[in-house]
Amino acid sequence: SHVMAFWSVSRIVWGVAMLLLYINNVDLLRPEGKDWHAIILFLLLVLCEIAPIIVLMDYSFTTIYEFADSATREMSSLATG
């Protein structure tokens, strides 16, 4: 499914970003004139951690809604016999 692919790719991107921060020894607590590190990390957090959760919640909601709609139609057809 596209949702799981998005989730997996975003986790890989987040992992690579954290690895690059570790390799380059970036100190996020005391930035030395490089405020863009924190901004990029915040954007990656939103895109790689928060966006997949929102997408997954939306996907779950539409799946539940479609199931409820089809179940209602089947129940009404059973009732009318």
Descriptive labels:
81 residues; mainly alpha; single chain
Structure description:
- This protein has 81 residues and is mainly α.
- It is 83% helix and 0% strand.
- It contains 2 helices and no strands.
- Helix 1 runs antiparallel to helix 2.
- The longest helix has 45 residues, at 36-80.
- The model has no long low-confidence stretch (mean pLDDT 77).
Low-confidence stretches: none
Largest sheet: none
**Class derived from helix and strand content:** mainly alpha
Q: Terminal Cα separation, in Å?
A: 37 Å
Number of helices: 2
Please give the share of residues in helix: over 70%
Report strand %.
Answer: under 5%
Number of strands: 0
A few lines on this structure:
The chain has helices at residues 2-23, 36-80.
Write the layout of secondary structure elements.
Layout: H1 2-23, H2 36-80
Helix pairs in contact: 1-2
